[in-house]
Write a structure and sequence with these properties.
This protein has 824 residues and is mostly beta strands. The chain is 9% helix and 53% strand.
Length: 824
């Protein structure tokens, strides 16, 4: 039986945080030391966007600093973390919002760039640079687990299931929400959500074109054009992006440079406003990606007879690919015969291959795989809003997404046939249809601000895997295993959330109570298709299905103490869908008995936070902080094994009984002079399994430590800017520094998968720019990323429990590029 979190109510949760570890770490008394605790201002708990900001209600919008005395003002930001437009500093949610200006200044053009701008966000790479996963507060997914992401991306309010690397261009904003978001954003949002909002049409003929060029053959051209077809009624925006970059890893086995990037993308946005009370916005976004994946690189290999904490380790790779082969096969010429048949293999064995990789670093590889990558993704967002009067709005969000991808990778990363995707490669082809109807507004004399809605999702997911492992020619031919499957699902949900102003009952102006509830009914199934290695097995069904219903909830208190300071405490409960791992024989059971099924994962958290924006000694100043504790039950994690049925590597998706994540976050910005901006963000996360004991095939397995969760991460920036005389433009210089501590890419490092810790690292980026030269609309900029060429890794595949080795994915080396932009 699953053990429930001991603290179940909001009060007990808040007390445990306030009096416990997180309460001490967050230190709300930090804010008490500031000269801001004046009498309660007559400030409503929930502030709707003013007419000046409603045009940007679909995403975070930057309101430019207003001219004023002193040292100016900080950029004002409007976010939609509660499905309505509010000032960032009035929103009781831990959220990082990046406006279009911030995206440009920090050169955030892909998902991996986003990590350095958002402390606490890990963009983890799995088998390649094109297999990505967002992770926040320990909510991640293991490679090949078929678990759903715990942090979901949304594009223009439509859930985006594409997990290939894409291109960020012509965006209005990106918002990163932290903590469970299951009430307003649905199932699987157990760690947070990433809200991506494209730029919307404007009522003028305008646009921009940007060209970029840099090292590694980097070229990119992007732009957008606004066309008001009917003034104020029919507005069109067309945007596009073309990017090419050569690879940055030299593979000596094939004398190639895999990791090339090719993006061809286009977007059409049509906004129709036939009346003042009706608006419809349609966005059609398409991207084709080509090029090649970055290769995995071998990280370590377990020697024959090695153990970890008394547990014998798999050493298949070291036994097959070293002189130990002589002992294994019982005659002294075995390894010499292997080398004769495989002349590019390391004559000293796989242990020497590990040393060679460490000696050359992340931008060198020696592996026989193919790295082809192809993907196509189309997403359609159609949002209709109807003003019903009296502050009430009816909204419909229709979404469609079609995505297909194929990748050929080498998970071994060494000059042997360790673990490759041949024949079919890694294939996915899915289609999503969704529709969401919302009613938003105020009632009860405007004391209650609410959103309620109904959501429907239908998804099909056809997949194929061609996995080839352990070729030891001329003795053992490589094992080729194919899997073909269909994973359809449907989901229905109804939800409501509101914030009630308690001012008239308590006498405390700005005090509000938020409550939300979401009911989800879902069905999901697995069908093994002809040709699959586990299709038609005697006594087994080719079709399995599950159904479940779940409640997500949220309760919170917030106090807008005055016009500068917001305090809040919130508790949330959410879940991640269960499912099936289609590479496991379709028995009617879970991983404990060697079956493909796994149960839903549930999580409950409590978060206490404060947001302040005002002045400190006449200096514009912003500081946000929060502390959190999150309890997880039935955590979905994977253990790799050699499947006795197929004699191939497979992953059993296991439900680990209990985990707990504790931490705090803080970020601030200050403008001590008109020409200087300084900022800092830091995140501390302590994630651990409080009960990691499971059974796999009846064999006890202990999970730990917790993967994909650096204990520390953070960033600092400084920007200097000044208008030059004679209208030469505005010159600026910016430096960003990002760092994170070590993290594990396996949840079994303490037992059957040691050596899966990725060291911490730091990166430094620079930007110098001259904007709007001679009021011409023309700007120039130069960028350097990873300026000191620091080597690092971004993720990996822990194949150790099955094959006796582990591999990693390399990070990008130092890169520079120049940019020219013309706005008209």
């Amino acid at each position: 039986m699953t053990r429930k979190p001991r603290a179940s109510g909001l009060s007990s949760l808040a007390i445990s945080i306030g009096c416990g570890r997180v309460g001490r770490l967050v230190g709300i008394t930090t804010f008490a030391s500031l000269p801001i605790f004046a009498a309660h201002a007559q400030t409503p708990t929930t502030q709707q966007a003013t007419p000046a900001t409603t045009a940007t209600a679909t995403g975070a919008a930057a309101q430019p600093p207003s001219p004023g005395a002193g040292k100016g003002q900080l950029e004002q930001i409007v976010v939609t973390a509660q499905r309505r437009s509010e000032k960032l500093e009035r929103t009781p949610v831990a959220v990082t919002a990046l406006t279009s200006t911030a995206l440009t200044k920090q050169a955030i053009t892909t998902e991996t760039d986003l990590q350095s701008a958002t402390s606490g966000l890990l963009v983890r790479q799995g088998t390649s640079s094109n297999q990505l996963n967002y992770a926040i507060r320990g909510q991640s997914i293991d490679v090949f687990s078929n678990s759903q992401p715990g942090v979901l991306p949304y594009f223009d309010e439509v859930q985006d299931d594409n997990r290939s690397a894409s291109a960020f261009y012509d965006l209005q904003s990106i918002q990163v929400l932290k903590g469970p978001q299951g009430t307003l954003f649905g199932r699987n949002d157990t760690g947070g959500a990433v809200l991506i909002t494209s730029a919307k049409p404007t009522n003028d003929v305008s646009g921009f074109i940007t060209t970029r060029a840099g090292d590694y053959g980097y070229t990119e051209t992007l732009g957008a054009l606004n066309i008001p077809i009917v003034n104020d009624k029919v507005l069109l925006r067309i945007a596009g992006d073309y990017e090419h970059r050569d690879g940055y890893v030299h593979d000596v086995y094939s004398n190639t440079t895999p990791g090339t990037v090719l993006h061809e993308a286009g977007r059409i946005t049509l906004e129709v406003k036939p009346t003042d009370w009706l608006q419809n916005t349609t966005v059609i976004d398409y991207i084709h990606s080509g090029g090649t994946d970055t290769p995995s690189e071998i990280y370590n290999a377990y020697a024959p007879g090695s153990t970890n904490n008394g547990i014998p380790l798999a050493a298949t790779a070291s036994e097959f690919y070293s002189p130990f082969l002589n002992k294994l096969f019982g005659f002294p010429q075995a390894y010499d015969l292997y080398l004769a048949a495989n002349p590019k293999a390391d004559p000293l064995g796989i242990g020497d291959s590990v040393l060679q990789q460490k000696r050359h670093g992340p931008n060198w590889a020696d592996a026989p795989g193919s790295y082809l990558h192809r993907s196509d993704n189309t997403i359609v967002s159609n949002v209709t809003t109807v003003d019903l009067g009296g502050g009430t709005t009816l909204k419909n969000i229709f979404g469609f997404e079609r995505s297909s991808a194929v990748d050929y990778t080498d998970a071994g990363g060494a000059p042997y046939l360790l673990e490759l995707t041949l024949h079919e490669g890694l294939n996915s082809d899915f289609t999503d249809f969704s529709d969401e109807v919302q009613l938003l507004g105020k009632t009860l004399d405007d004391q209650l601000t609410y959103v309620t809605g109904f959501y429907y999702l239908s998804s099909t997911n056809y997949g194929g895997v061609g996995l080839s492992v352990l070729g030891v020619q001329p003795f053992i031919p490589i094992t080729n295993t194919l899997y073909f499957y269909d994973l359809p699902s449907t989901s229905y949900a109804g939800y409501a959330q509101g914030t009630y102003d308690l001012s008239r009952f308590t006498g405390l102006q700005g005090l509000g109570f938020t409550a939300g509830l979401r009911y989800t009914d879902q069905d999901y199934s697995e069908t093994e298709l002809p040709g699959s290695a586990v299709y038609g097995l005697p006594g087994l069904s080719n079709h399995l299905s599950q159904s479940n219903t779940k409640l997500s909830w949220q309760f919170g208190l917030q106090e807008q103490l005055n016009s500068h300071l917001l305090l809040y405490v919130v508790s949330r409960h959410s879940f991640r869908s269960g499912g099936f791992n289609p590479t496991v024989p379709p028995t009617a059971g879970n991983a404990n008995t060697g079956g493909p099924g796994f149960e839903p994962e549930t999580t409950t958290d409590v978060e206490i936070g404060a947001k302040y924006e005002g002045q400190l000694a006449s200096v514009p100043f912003r500081l946000n902080g929060d502390g959190f504790n999150q309890w997880v039950s039935n955590a979905q994690r994977i253990e790799y094994i050699l499947d006795p049925t197929t004699q191939s590597v497979t992953g059993l998706t296991v439900n680990v009984p209990q985990a707990e994540i504790t931490g705090f976050e803080a970020n601030g910005e200050i403008r001590p002079a008109r020409w200087l901006d300084l900022g800092l963000s830091v995140t501390y996360t302590d994630a651990r399994f409080t009960n990691g004991a499971t059974e796999v095939f009846g064999k006890p397995t202990e999970f730990g430590p917790y993967a994909d969760t650096p204990r520390w991460s953070g960033s600092v920036f400084a920007e200097l800017s000044e208008d030059l005389p004679r209208d030469y433009g505005r010159a600026s210089f910016r430096t960003d520094v990002f760092a994170e501590s070590k993290f594990y890419y396996s949840n079994l490092n303490n037992t059957v998968s040691p050596g899966t810790a990725i060291p911490g690292y730091g990166l430094v980026n620079f930007r110098v720019a001259l904007d709007n030269i001679k009021n011409s609309g023309f700007s120039l900029a130069g960028y350097v990323r990873n300026a000191f060429d620091h080597p690092y890794y971004t993720g990996g595949i822990p194949s150790g429990p099955a094959l006796g080795f582990n591999s990693v994915q390399p990070g990008q080396p130092r890169m520079f590029f120049f940019e020219g932009t013309y706005k008209f």
